[in-house]
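Operator note (shift B, R.M.): manual run for TPR repeat-containing SEL1 subfamily protein requested after the automated queue skipped it. Running by hand, logging everything below so the morning shift can see what happened. Input copied straight from the record, untouched. If output looks odd, do not overwrite the archive copy; leave it for review.
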Amino acid sequence: MNPCAKLRYFLPLLALGLLAGCSDAPPPMQTVRDHYFYGGLAAFHEDMHPEAARQWQRAAELGDGEAARNLGHLYRQGLGVEADGHIAAAWYQVAADAGVISAEYNLGMLYMKGGTGLPADPAEGLKRLGQAAAAGFIPAKAELDRLAAPPPPAAAVAAAEPPPSAAEPPAAEPAPLRMQIGSYRTKAAAEQDWKRLRLKTLRPEVVANTVEGQGRWYRLVAVGPPEAVEAFCGSAQAKGMSCWSRNRRNPVAK
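Run finished. Output pasted below as returned.
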């Protein structure tokens, strides 16, 4: 090989090595995974569910745990793919193995209720919920507490209801909750996603965060009344979006 040919061969490798060594640049494979993950997210927001499934499957095959969890949502609900409880459980398992704690909770709920072609398995469901609760996922602990609590007798419920009184002091205003909606590579992307969501009862916060090995990310956080936060989280998770409030989990990011 002549010297010029050698230079053409090694120059791209040298440039790639320099890029990987830069503290602000994510690893090349992370960039590829992000490409497919956010492509799937954009397709999902446009109700292009088959394309979202295709993009997320590619990201999951490259090791993206959050993409695997989102695929589990699609197969559980039959969005863009044929509903299949077994495949949903398999993708949730991939996500859980990748360290996505919420996927362990999703597995627990799937086994508790069953899915398309997947019979309910309460014993396995309780096991998975227990693992998620032990890892600090608050919805899992709340579900275990709910399942463990005996239903109160009807008479006790009636007796516990206090009679209305004009002398009762006004209820204290509930403290606002902080809900993380997602993580983004740029502040502009986070602000653009907030405009798209149009959450009039909540106010946004964009928090810069440096992730080791991945550079700077920007977390989009919504702040507002607990009922507004919980309502949005419920609707977001039903659509397969990542969402958590501070009374649920501390870090589906997107």
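Quick read of the result: The two ends are 47 Å apart (CA to CA). Residues 10 and 103 are 42 Å apart (CA to CA).
Leaving this for review. - R.M.
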